[in-house]
Amino acid sequence: MRPVKSAQGEEQGELYQRRLSTRLDQSHPLYVLAEAIDWEFFEREFGSLYVEQKGRPGLPMRLLVGLHYLKHLYDVSDERVMAGFVENPYWQYFCGEEFFVHELPCNPTNLVKWRKRIGPGGMEKLLAETIAAAQRQQALKPSDLRRVNVDTTVQEKAIAFPTDARLYHKARCVLVREAQRVGIELRQSYRRVGKRALKSKAATRTRSN
Questions:
Q1: 14 Cβ contact list (under 8 Å, min separation 6)
Q2: Is residue 111 located within the same domain as residue 78?
């Protein structure tokens, strides 16, 4: 069933409670971001993934989207983003809560199920709205999107260092090939010896690891 609407924006509040919007610093980055994001965009994009009048109502769309934004923004697990939600009023306001709550908004498994429901394309829409919000706030110019710099420092690479036996073997092959090209006769090319040495070195490295 379609998710229920968040309580954000209702005029009547709970007795003896102050709205989060009146208690928080409106210059806080999460408060500013919450106001900049078009939350109705996700209602329109993901609403078709739910059926009408069947099953119990789904969790508020803003809650699910907001929790995923916080999860990736702070690089935490599903369980940790839930715990942080209960502790942090800014997180609650960002996820659409009007008043401070003291219980978990849902089970962490609900986040897993929701990611499966929207798929990779849905997660791309979360990123797209982030970029759109930045452009609406004039924090991002079109020229900033013309080039993307990717830092691959921690990405695994097949780097051969100068002391690596593969480089010695490659250099030997090049020297032999060049000698043959210019007509230099070699007493021995070390082709078989080089291959055996390379395999032996590789086997030694594997055992040591």
A1: 99
A2: yes
Tokens of 35: 């106001």
pLDDT computed for residue 195 by the predictor: 81
Q: How far apart are alpha carbons 92 and 86 in whole angstroms?
A: 7
Q: Which two tokens stand for residue 150?
A: 């990717």
- Say whether pLDDT at 6 is over 60: no
Of residues 85 and 152, more confidently modeled: 85
Distance CA 149, CA 151 (A): 7
**Residues 69-89: pLDDT tens digits?**
999 999 999 999 999 999 999
Q: Say yes or no: 88 and 171 in one domain.
A: no
Distance CA 116, CA 122 (A): 9
Listing DSSP states for 105-140 in one string gives SS-HHHHHHHHHHHHHHHHHHHHHHHHHHHHHTTSS
50 φψ region: left (φ > 0), alpha (ψ -120 to 50), beta (else): beta
User: What gap in Å lies between CA 159 and CA 193, rounded to an integer?
Assistant: 24
pLDDT at residue 27 greater than cutoff 50: yes
Across the range 27-51, mean pLDDT stands at 89
Q: What residue type is 122 in one-letter code?
A: G
Based on the fold, state whether residues 89 and 29 are members of the same structural domain: yes
For the residues of 66-86, what is the DSSP string, one character each? Answer: HHHHHHHHTT--HHHHHHHHH
From CA 136, how far away is CA 139, in angstroms rounded?
8
Stretch 158-187: mean pLDDT:
83
